[in-house]
Specification:
The chain has about 400 residues and is an all-alpha fold. It is built from 17 helices and no strands.
Length: about 400
């Protein structure tokens, strides 16, 4: 289904607003951890569970709920997603205990998982085939803008009016997105295509795909050992005032946006090779941060490069998984993307949990080198995948037969 240009742009705008709301709520806890901990009289590491459990909610919600909702109208599903999202963030704003706040975060995460699984498909269906990449890019711009502006703005609102005000603001943005979806998204979108069970089984039993999902979890998640506790690290180790943290998160978000664009360009041709070198650089930057964190200028420069590399691997990881799915489980490409989204969030959950354990037992500064070890594990797995690729290329050449002139 295709719309005229003006209607398709407005529909894509509705998706981008939804992505902005969802992107903001995903990472907002990072800036609010010290405020939540102080207000609820809990440790910063206990407050860090708001990141860990959110990520786990997306991890399990994305593939399971995507499969269960394939028969629903896409517009109805989008509306339902935003209703759940508003409910989750409203509950977070009203929560008076860490238990209720964690329940609210899991509820919001369930909407996130399904949205990320279907939004790209909907965006692609709104435009002609030759404009699909641009449509998907416009939808994802909401996420990018959220990382650049939503998280620091939410942190600033939390610092000025209390952390609950940040979740109220996100719920209001969710309401705007809900209204935009009701008005601007066409009702005639095609339904999802159910994936045969045998194809889904291929995804979770194929060694090459499992290896790719492990690379995603470790390579992306390693940074979150540090990033989850970046606010207290900047305050307690580097010595910045809490009011300055929102500005630093803005700089970090700009670095992420730049890195994401660079990552898409360098991973176009040889995603695995590009990922190998990205992970090496990220591990080095995390190790360097252990030395530079106590110094304001050197620490800021290192954190900028940490942000630059943090999301640079995302396009390459997605491209590589889709390439593998096309070869090993061609009937499950959509589900492969959902499983990889789950792997991203499994990495966040592992990284955030590890960061909490390390902060409690060893101290904030040690999150840096342990995060680096996690990323180095991704380097080793990526090297293994590259070796498997080289082994399989001659086999493919034999199957295809000799080249004809």
């Amino acid at each position: 289904m295709q719309l005229d240009q003006k209607r398709s742009i407005l529909a894509l705008l509705a998706l981008a607003i939804s992505a902005y709301a969802i992107g903001t709520t995903e990472f907002i806890s990072v800036g609010l951890l010290p405020l939540i901990a102080e207000n609820l009289h809990i440790s910063v590491t206990t407050a860090g569970l708001t990141v860990t459990l959110y990520a786990l909610g997306v991890t399990f919600g994305a593939p399971v709920l995507t499969s269960l909702t394939t028969g629903m109208s896409r517009k109805s599903l989008l509306v339902a997603i935003m209703v759940v999202f508003i409910a989750g963030n409203s509950l977070a704003a009203a929560s008076g205990s860490i238990g209720v706040l964690l329940m609210a975060r899991v509820l919001s995460a369930l909407s996130h998982g399904v949205f990320m699984s279907i939004a790209s498909t909907i965006a692609a269906d709104l435009v002609p085939e030759n404009k699909r990449a641009s449509a998907i890019s416009m939808m994802f711009s909401g996420l990018t803008v959220a990382i650049v502006t939503g998280v620091p703005l939410g942190t600033w609102i939390g610092q000025q009016m209390g952390w609950r005000a940040a979740f109220v603001t996100i719920a209001v943005i969710g309401l705007v997105a809900l209204i935009a979806n009701l008005i601007l998204i066409p009702a005639s979108l095609r339904k999802g295509v159910p994936t045969p069970v045998r194809e889904q089984v291929k995804l979770v039993t194929n060694g090459r795909l499992l290896l790719a999902f492990a690379i995603t979890a470790l390579g992306y998640g390693g940074t979150f050992v540090v990033f989850t506790y970046l606010s207290p690290l900047l305050h307690e180790i580097t010595g910045f005032a809490e009011s300055t943290v929102a500005v630093i998160l803005l700089i970090y978000g700009v670095a992420i946006a730049i890195g994401n664009v660079i990552g898409g360009k360098v991973a176009n041709r040889r995603p695995l090779k590009a990922l190998f070198y990205m992970f090496i650089l990220q591990a080095i930057v995390l190790l360097v941060l252990m030395v530079t964190a106590p110094f304001k200028v050197a620490g800021l420069i290192t954190i900028f490069f940490m942000g630059l590399l943090a999301f640079m691997n995302v396009p390459g990881l997605q491209i590589y998984v889709v390439m593998l799915a096309e070869h090993f489980a061609p009937g499950a490409k959509d589900v492969a993307s959902a499983v990889n989204i789950a792997a991203f969030n499994a990495g966040i959950a592992i990284g955030a949990y590890l960061g909490g354990v390390i902060t409690d037992s060893m101290g904030l500064i040690h999150t840096t080198w342990i995060g680096a070890i996690m990323v180095l594990a991704a380097v080793l797995l990526t090297g293994w995948s590259m070796a498997l690729e080289r082994k399989s290329e001659p086999v493919r050449a034999v199957r295809m037969g000799p080249a004809r002139s």
